[in-house]
């Protein structure tokens, strides 16, 4: 059963700021994983992702990165206007899948955004969709096409 086609950070950002009510549009981003695919040469999606994180950061909740591979450089977060005191890193235990950790983090409702690295197909599941909706949180799946140091211009 095909639930959703993948949506990107730029699509969510554009729909958020095109809508009249930001609260209504923020809920558009909740309910399915948002793909953020970028490389050193193509950073547009990363820029949209950081803008969405800044919006999520305005809530009185955490932004959680699951695993070191999902973590974004601290200076990028600061430069994007994100309060790093509201950012958490969850180390991934060997016996836990990132998918299950993401479901739990989203369901708790303590995070406005939960970020994991991987392929969107692994995380675009009914469990994550439901957890994101119930927790009123955005779920991001980062697909870094390179390990080069990234900067936002």
UniProtKB/TrEMBL annotation:
Organism encoding this protein: Photobacterium angustum (strain S14 / CCUG 15956)
Record-level GO BP terms: cell division; negative regulation of cell division; SOS response
Keyword check for Cytoplasm: no
Alphabetized InterPro entries for the sequence: Cell_div_suppressor_SulA, P-loop_NTPase
Name the record gives this protein: Hypothetical SulA SOS-response cell division inhibitor
Keyword annotations: Cell cycle, Cell division
């Amino acid at each position: 059963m095909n639930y959703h086609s993948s949506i990107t950070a730029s699509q969510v950002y554009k729909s958020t700021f095109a809508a009249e009510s930001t609260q209504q549009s923020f809920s558009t981003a909740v309910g399915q994983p948002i793909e953020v695919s970028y490389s050193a040469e193509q950073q547009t999606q990363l820029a949209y992702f950081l803008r969405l994180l800044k919006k999520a950061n305005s809530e009185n909740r955490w932004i959680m990165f699951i695993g070191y591979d999902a973590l974004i450089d601290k200076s990028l977060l600061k430069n994007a206007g994100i309060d790093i005191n509201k950012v958490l890193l969850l180390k991934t235990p060997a016996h836990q899948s990132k998918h299950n950790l993401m479901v739990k983090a989203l369901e708790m409702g303590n995070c406005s955004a939960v970020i994991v690295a991987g392929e969107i197909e692994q995380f675009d599941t009914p469990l994550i969709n439901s957890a994101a909706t119930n927790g009123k949180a955005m779920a991001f799946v980062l697909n870094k096409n390179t390990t080069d140091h990234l900067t936002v211009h």
